[in-house]
Specification:
five-stranded antiparallel sheet; single chain; elongated; 2 helices; about 110 residues
Length: about 110
């Protein structure tokens, strides 16, 4: 697994839209598998799970992205974890797909 965590300023909605569109437009095989949005007392949280085929790894990789904002003007925390792009039964081999998928998000941020 590969992980990225970052604190961002700016509009929560604009950041979420930039991430969704950027990832979906990055590859013909990229898809948004599921999403969840909720808020409570001014805090917001959005979760997106993307998948794509990794030609280099010869398999599918997933990328889970979570955005959290504690209040309307607070910074947005971004946490992303890529997985599923390895090969082998008992240990991880060939994690290129995970790293490449996470790099797309890092470039968008």
């Amino acid at each position: 697994m590969a992980k990225l965590e970052k604190t961002m300023s700016g509009s929560f909605n604009n950041l979420l839209s930039r991430i969704e569109n950027g990832i979906l437009n990055s590859s013909a095989t990229a898809s948004l598998e599921e999403k969840s949005d909720f808020s409570y007392n001014g805090a917001r949280c959005s979760v997106r799970v993307f998948e794509r085929y990794s030609m280099l790894g010869g398999n599918r990789a997933s990328l889970s992205v979570t955005l959290f904002q504690g209040a309307a003007d607070a910074p947005v925390r971004v946490s992303a974890i890529a997985s599923g792009g390895s090969q082998a039964m008992f240990f991880k081999l060939n994690t290129f797909g995970e790293q490449a998928f996470l790099q797309i998000l890092e470039d968008l941020l």
